[in-house]
Design a protein that fits this description.
Strand content: 25-35%
Distance between the termini: 16 Å
Helix content: under 10%
Number of strands: 11
Radius of gyration: 16 Å
């Protein structure tokens, strides 16, 4: 196998601004991405590309994210490390029903802690995470902290062959 390495100083896409009962729209969908020069990899993405959009919230303020599932299987989003009410935690059959293909779910919560977190599915995790469904979630302090520069780094170990096709995601 070979290692595909993608380095980005800034995300290619931002979240879609919503106009209804949500602040942002986040879509899980298959999309081809270029991980190896000149090769297309059939990945699973948020909003059509990798890296996924960086979600930003303010400490203590409510955020509403409309999640749309355009995968061919059920999924959820788990907001890793964020203390939130159980019904919004994204664990299928425990805290919420899985979001079926073509359906949506409104995640609605406040983040009590500032910090850098990440989001990912909790359904068929080996495949869905392994093929790209991860993103950064930044909760900024209630009172903004001034700084000169910010860089968000997300490291991935892509298991690809020389043509950019996924190798088995697990090897016992």
């Amino acid at each position: 196998g070979c290692l595909g390495l993608t380095a980005c100083s800034m995300p290619k896409f931002t979240l879609q601004e919503a106009t209804g009962d949500e602040d942002f729209v986040l879509v899980a969908e298959p999309a081809p991405i270029e991980l190896l020069a000149g090769k297309q990899t059939a990945a699973l993405t948020f909003n059509g590309d990798f890296p996924a959009p960086i979600i930003r919230a303010r400490q203590g303020q409510r955020i509403r994210i409309r999640f749309i599932n355009r995968l061919d299987e059920a999924t959820t989003i788990h907001w890793h490390g964020i203390r939130l009410e159980n019904a919004m935690d994204g664990v299928p059959f425990l805290t919420q029903p899985p979001v079926q293909p073509g359906e949506s779910f409104l995640y609605d919560f406040s983040c009590p802690d500032a910090g850098t977190f990440w989001y990912h599915p909790h359904v068929n995790s080996l495949t869905q995470l392994g093929k790209g469904l991860t993103g950064a979630f930044i909760v900024e302090e209630a009172q903004p902290v001034l700084f000169d520069h910010e860089a968000v780094v997300q490291l991935r170990d892509w298991r690809l062959d020389k043509e950019g096709v996924f190798l088995p995601l697990s090897n016992p």
